[in-house]
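As agreed, record minuted below.
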Amino acid sequence: MTVTTAETVWTETPTTSAEWIARAQKVSDILARDAVERDRVGAAPYAEVQLLKDSGLVTLLGPTEFGGGGQRWETAYQVVRVIARGDGSIGQLLGYHYLWAWAVRLVGTEPQIGAVEELYTSNNFLFGGAVNPRDTDLTIVDRGETLVYNGVKSFSTGGRATDLTVLEGIIEGTATHVFAIVPTAQDGIVFRGDWDNLGQRLTDSGTVEIKDVEVDWAGAAGFVDKEFQPLVYNTLNFPALEIVFANFYVGIARGALDTAAEYTRTRTRPWPYGGDNKELATDEWYLREGYGDLQAKLWATEAFVDQVNRESDAVLHDARENLTEQARGDLAVRIAAAKLRAADVALEIGTRVFELTGARATSNSVGLDIFWRNVRTHTLHDPVAYKRREVGGYVLTGEIPEPTWYT
């Protein structure tokens, strides 16, 4: 593994959006150098997370008074996209971190927001989340002053490389869900290290066992005197995460197209049996047509995702009390559309680049498969067909999605 910041001195902290995106590009370039080799090993991403921390990207959204970048979500989306271009796994890690760091704003009380943001920003902590909503076997026992979590969660992204873990469970004998943020390094959090999937192999998204993890009631996000304080804004958890998905999908797609184009420029041989033989592969009409088609589709998708990024940014940074159910629904549909469009174009590019690079490009040493494997793995997070249905219902009847764990 060669990912290291030893050769890079991160001097001045970026202050503008453009500077932060440029910083992300430098990090992405470092990650891209050995992304294939690190993917093959599939180790926990300790070095990669340290790179994110050293570069300042972990605290991009953190308040400036605690040493953070004080940036908006629109910049964070672009940063995630740029990182995913070099390494899809690390783009996912960073995107999830941003969402979980913001989760206290989504569901927490004002005192909780201040405490959590100071904690993670001043310490340069990375978030992970044991919050797979399809696992209902994480239970909570109310012991009066404290809550005790026990059970198992799969798909705990970030795993061993994180500093803080977001827990979600149900209070025993009730239907009450409680989120809490706890230190990852404790005896009661045990990672099985069983993430061995087709793609996104460096996200360490395996199973985690929670054993008698105790949380003060004061740390139960959004609860005051054991009663949850509801807002429409509380229901943005999943849409806010899905637009992060869309950005690292298009980032992976951009990485695939750029990598393939460079291969074609430098290594693909022209086809000698077409009757219109060319000296260079870059002059082959079918290659120009293929790259032109994929580039046009990607540009269109990036532009649409950028627009939805701006819409999401405006909602997330507005006063929480301002969000209505209709505005929430309108945004959720737009995010669903951005996600499905990003998934479609990333999968198409990840597959078709092989047609444009040639048989030799299937060599494991080239590693062009990493892009398709990464996006294929994560786009199965929830069925895209249901996103299409949400958008279709909105178009035909004006119906907005009912907030659930996946809408």
